[in-house]
């Protein structure tokens, strides 16, 4: 191996092969600086978590990545597996989804509750089907090309139903599903758009331990079998520490730590600034993330 190849092999993936690079991102709302000169990378094929206390700027970062907000300053580069690069801060949100292949879910569930579970997955493929039907004419005349696309869309929807264990509920209204299943359906719906980067805003919020374990399994499956990079905002430390390859910690809009879960959970600035300042509170959180054991000894 050459020296350069050696160095690439030992560097973490977020440095050696980033799918997303955020440079000097700043977002101001009037006098409030929600995100302040933030730089980080997301490794291709990694699960990356952004954590931080309430109001740290996590959702604002997501809103900048997905075109919801135009950042005040900074550059956001998406590198697709094909080698194409996209400057997301210059693109409207629909192009970020369709061309740069970035999909997202929101903190609050945004399914079409009155539509069936299967229909929710078909709607996600609407744009592709519209193009393949030559904007409905092909559909009206039943062109073979459109029929093939329609069959492929149904197959893809069924595939994801199977992956989220909801095949039996395909014809039920999405609103009738238990909360955890609705969360998984949202992720499946985003996956039907074949993203290369999947952004999830607090996917574990409100889940019970069994649903949380199912979510972890689904996210690992997406990473391992679909080579989709996952970027998530999460407050549930057990989820973050268990499934993330890379963790970025924000506080007051600035990055205070960036590394593997192991590095971040042992970083004193994270314990002090992010997790609270009271000794007892710190111990409690350290126990939760596994940095110390039940007796207070370092893990
Ligand atoms: N559209 C907006 N207009 C004005 N201020 C905003 C807007 N969006 C966010 N903010 C402010 O920016 C700061 C960061 O908010 P943000 O929602 O990004 O934090 P967060 O880390 O996602 O918090 P949480 O964990 O509570 O969701 C907060 O002070 C918030 O009030």
UniProtKB/TrEMBL annotation:
Keywords: Amino-acid transport, ATP-binding, Nucleotide-binding, Transport. One of its GO terms (molecular function) is ATP hydrolysis activity. Residues 20-277 form the ABC transporter domain. It holds the Pfam family BCA_ABC_TP_C. InterPro entries: AAA+_ATPase, ABC_AA/LPS_Transport, ABC_transporter-like_ATP-bd, BCA_ABC_TP_C, P-loop_NTPase. Signal peptide: none annotated. One of its GO terms (cellular component) is plasma membrane. The keyword Transport applies. One of its GO terms (biological process) is D-alanine transmembrane transport. The keyword Magnesium does not apply. Belongs to the ABC transporter superfamily. This is Branched-chain amino acid transport system ATP-binding protein. The lineage of its organism: Bacteria, Pseudomonadati, Pseudomonadota, Alphaproteobacteria, Hyphomicrobiales.
């Amino acid at each position: 191996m050459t020296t350069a190849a050696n160095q690439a092999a030992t560097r973490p993936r977020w440095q050696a092969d980033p799918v997303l690079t955020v440079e000097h991102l700043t977002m101001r709302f009037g006098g409030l600086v929600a995100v302040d000169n933030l730089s980080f990378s997301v490794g291709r094929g990694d699960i990356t978590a952004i954590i931080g206390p309430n109001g740290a700027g996590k959702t604002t970062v997501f809103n900048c990545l997905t075109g919801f907000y135009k950042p005040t300053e900074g550059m956001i580069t998406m590198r697709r597996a094909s080698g194409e690069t996209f400057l997301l801060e210059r693109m409207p949100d629909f192009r970020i989804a369709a061309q740069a292949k970035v999909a997202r879910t929101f903190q609050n569930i945004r399914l079409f509750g009155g539509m069936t579970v299967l229909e929710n997955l078909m709607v996600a493929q609407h744009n592709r089907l519209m193009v393949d039907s030559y904007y409905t004419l092909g559909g009206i005349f039943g062109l073979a090309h459109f029929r093939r696309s329609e069959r492929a869309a149904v197959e893809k929807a069924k595939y994801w139903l199977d992956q989220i264990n909801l095949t039996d509920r395909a014809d039920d209204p999405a609103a009738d599903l238990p909360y955890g299943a609705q969360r998984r359906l949202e992720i499946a719906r985003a996956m039907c758009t074949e993203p290369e980067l999947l952004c999830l805003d607090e996917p574990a919020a409100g889940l019970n331990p069994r649903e949380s374990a199912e979510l972890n399994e689904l996210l690992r499956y997406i990473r391992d079998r679909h080579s989709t990079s996952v970027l998530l905002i999460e407050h549930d430390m057990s989820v973050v520490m268990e499934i993330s390859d890379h963790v970025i910690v924000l506080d007051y809009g600035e990055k205070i730590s960036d590394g593997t879960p192991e590095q971040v959970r042992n970083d004193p600035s994270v314990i002090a600034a992010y997790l609270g300042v009271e000794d007892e509170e710190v111990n409690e959180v350290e126990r939760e993330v596994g940095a110390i054991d039940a007796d207070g000894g370092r893990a």
